[in-house]
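can u do me a favor
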């Protein structure tokens, strides 16, 4: 599915083409089917009120536009993910009336696709090894004129002898380098339906449109990590535990003399580093599942240009973004478990209570009493759908205040 090199020239045309398609209605004669919407929770604990509100919105946006809805377990971070969490989250989402079409997607099952994408970029000389520690990067970005949060390019233009030395230095400590994208732009523009920042700027200094349909968000693109470094991987390509250090040495030899193509390739038969970065995984995932619309919390707005640029390089169709405001706790910070009964298990009134809270938080965008009248057993996302008017959604973050506390 990853078409790489030949797409560079045609990508602009593709983008215009997809905008034209987006104007067509599903089922219309000659109209092409719209990409699906999706929700993609990370299985590292219970979903909370803020997650459910975003999930309900993602479902409403998709269904309002006649899109299918996909569900994906974002378990690329294997250490922080658990199967137990994934099961509970899916159960909770079903209880909240958020269904999906097609198979359940899991990032851990898509690693070969991430590797293919990495390989496609590698073949074009767009991948290089980075030997920096977090501390190195933190110190380098303090330099004047550095884009906030952007990688300063320390390892971008190292010579092969410097690379060999740094690689050996890491290997001695049982570590492997990260792989970064050799970005050819500093900024990228994405289609953003609903960004924050009515003042015209968003996170990372990006510019945000007035939020009207067809708006754009322009933000920073840097040499993002494609595969993380860290400890030498223990798992070999064939499974099992075949000699980690031998694999690294073989890898270093294989890379010698060629800084571009083949950079960071794993040794054949040696251990495989599957620590793909989220930015790479999510772009491949959305394309695999036919996703055309990404509704998510606006804390991810500044990642959108990086992800869209990667999709462009990989010849994948651009998605439309809808970054919605987060639910905040009483302290004005992002909602967290410390804020009280915010999981489905604890929420006052359970799923019914939570759906009512979410419906009321959507302001003029839904008709809560019409939904109540339509659904005999409490409000459901499906009951909210007929009156959903996305253009009336509140653009400010919503604040959760636990009931019955003195602060309420
Ligand atoms: Zn570096």
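np, heres the sequence
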């Amino acid at each position: 599915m990853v078409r790489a090199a030949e797409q560079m020239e045609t990508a602009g045309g593709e983008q215009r083409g997809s905008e034209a398609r987006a104007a067509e209605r599903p089922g219309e004669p000659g109209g092409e089917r719209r990409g699906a919407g999706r929700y993609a929770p990370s299985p590292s604990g219970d979903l909370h009120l803020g997650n459910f509100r975003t999930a309900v919105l993602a479902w409403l946006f998709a269904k309002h536009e006649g899109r299918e809805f996909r569900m994906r377990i974002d378990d690329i971070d294997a250490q922080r993910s658990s199967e137990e969490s994934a099961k509970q989250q899916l159960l909770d989402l079903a209880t909240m009336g958020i269904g999906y079409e097609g198979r359940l997607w899991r990032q851990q099952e898509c690693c070969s696709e991430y590797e293919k994408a990495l390989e496609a970029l590698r073949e074009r000389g767009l991948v290089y090894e980075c030997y920096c520690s977090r501390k190195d990067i933190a110190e380098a970005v303090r330099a004047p004129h550095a884009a906030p949060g952007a990688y300063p390019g320390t390892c971008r233009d190292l010579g092969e002898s410097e690379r060999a030395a740094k690689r050996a230095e890491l290997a001695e400590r049982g570590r492997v380098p990260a792989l970064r994208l050799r970005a050819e732009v500093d900024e990228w523009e994405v289609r953003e339906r609903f960004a924050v920042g009515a003042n015209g700027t968003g996170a990372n200094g990006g510019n945000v449109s007035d939020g009207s349909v067809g708006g754009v968000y322009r933000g920073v693109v840097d040499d993002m990590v494609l595969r993380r470094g860290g400890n030498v991987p223990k798992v070999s390509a064939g499974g099992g535990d075949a000699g980690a250090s031998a694999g690294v040495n073989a890898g270093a030899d294989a890379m010698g003399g060629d800084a571009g193509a083949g950079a960071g390739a794993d040794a054949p038969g040696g251990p495989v580093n599957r620590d793909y970065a989220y930015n790479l995984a999510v772009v491949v995932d959305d394309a695999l599942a036919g996703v055309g619309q990404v509704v998510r919390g606006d804390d991810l707005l500044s990642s959108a240009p990086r992800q869209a640029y990667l999709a462009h390089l990989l010849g994948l169709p651009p998605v439309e973004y809808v970054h919605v405001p987060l639910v905040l706790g009483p302290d004005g910070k992002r909602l967290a478990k410390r804020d009280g009964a915010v999981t489905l298990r604890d929420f006052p009134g359970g799923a019914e209570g939570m759906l009512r809270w979410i419906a009321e938080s959507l302001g003029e965008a839904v008709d809560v009493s019409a939904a109540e009248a339509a659904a005999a057993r409490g409000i459901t996302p499906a009951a909210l759908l007929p009156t959903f008017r996305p253009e009336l959604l509140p653009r400010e973050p919503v604040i959760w205040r636990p009931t019955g506390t003195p602060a309420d």
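Residues 1-32, 196-213, 237-262, 404-408 have pLDDT under 50 and may be disordered. hope that helps!!
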